[in-house]
Amino acid sequence: MHFHFILKCTVYCQKRNFVENSLMQPTIQLIRKELRDFYSYQETEGIIRQIFYSLRGFSLTDLVLKTAEKLNNEELTKIRQYIDRLKQFEPIQYITGQTEFCGLKIKVNPHVLIPRPETEELVQWIVSDFKKSPGKILDIGTGSGCIALALKKMFINSNVSGCDISPDAIDTAITNANDQQLTIRFFTADILAWEKFQGWEKGDVIVSNPPYVPESEMKLMSKNVIDFEPHSSIFVPDNDPMIFYGRIISFSRNWLNREGKLFFEVNGQYVLQIRDLFIISGFINVEIRYDINGKPRMIKGELR
């Protein structure tokens, strides 16, 4: 009886603590305290930004300027639930059901990969590479549709499409397009067997962030990735780590218009092999780009 009394008292005190700390700043401090044994300081700060972006649409500036605002009981309850799930290492993006990508609010779930900042850099490169909207753009392995959505937002006059092998991913991408009121053609197709699909159209830009992490590196990945994100969107066989690059380059030789461009996000350890594959396949003006961390992360080629 004594143990159960203490347990109930502890739960009551935690809930009361959240009610008493209904101001933004004390609540943020409490989140930091609860998560400090589970995440690094930088990770926790990112989580805090995601939480308040989800609850109130707050920017980083808002978090600084609006610390005196009060949170309502519903928001406090959600934060308590978020913390419990975060302690199981569930990604905050899946918990809130959304993330931000290139200024767009994107719905995400365990059927799709969580967009990374490096992929935003890929989109920025594509946008900077064109003085006017390309005619047709195809995003291969579209997942949540984030790349296609961001490009359509920037190239409003372009005809943008996205394909994925997962019907659940395509459903998510369609939802995101509808939310953003952007007209994009999303469809299910297996790029590894692209010859069997009859619905392709010639395009001016093809972009892909394909799976590129060898399965042997799975043990090096963090728990939130291994336990929650879709493995089919991340890992490739150790004996054929460039399988997607080879097939997409082969596809692009058939479905890119002349002078069309192919862009990839890449695994840095294979970037030179991918460059050589571009050149052998008849692409010119092949260029490698480095991400903000100084790693070779992107490559493009132009079809001769």
Task: Outline the fold blueprint.
Blueprint: H1 2-20, H2 24-35, H3 41-56, H4 60-65, H5 73-86, H6 92-96, E1 98-101, E2 104-107, H7 117-128, E3 136-140, H8 146-154, E4 159-164, H9 167-180, E5 185-188, E6 203-208, E7 213-214, H10 223-228, E8 235-236, H11 243-255, E9 256-265, H12 271-280, E10 283-290, E11 296-303
Parallel strand pairs: 3-4, 3-6, 4-5, 6-9, 7-8
Antiparallel strand pairs: 1-2, 9-11, 10-11
Keywords for this entry:
12 helices, alpha/beta, 11 strands, 304 residues, Rossmann fold, two-stranded antiparallel ribbon, seven-stranded mixed sheet, 19% strand
Structural notes for this entry:
The protein folds into two domains: 2-88, no CATH class; 111-303, 3-Layer(aba) Sandwich (Rossmann fold). It is 45% helix and 19% strand. The chain has helices at residues 2-20, 24-35, 41-56, 60-65, 73-86, 92-96, 117-128, 146-154, 167-180, 223-228, 243-255, 271-280; strands at residues 98-101, 104-107, 136-140, 159-164, 185-188, 203-208, 213-214, 235-236, 256-265, 283-290, 296-303. The protein has a seven-stranded mixed β-sheet with strand order 5-4-3-6-9-11-10, with helices on both faces. The chain is globular, with a radius of gyration of 22 Å.
Question: What does this entry show, briefly?
Answer:
The chain is an alpha/beta fold and 304 residues long. It contains twelve helices and eleven strands.
Mean pLDDT: 92
Report strand %: 15-25%
Tertiary shape: globular
Look at the structure and give the CATH class of the largest domain.
Alpha Beta
Instruction: Please give the order of strands in the largest beta sheet.
Output: 5-4-3-6-9-11-10
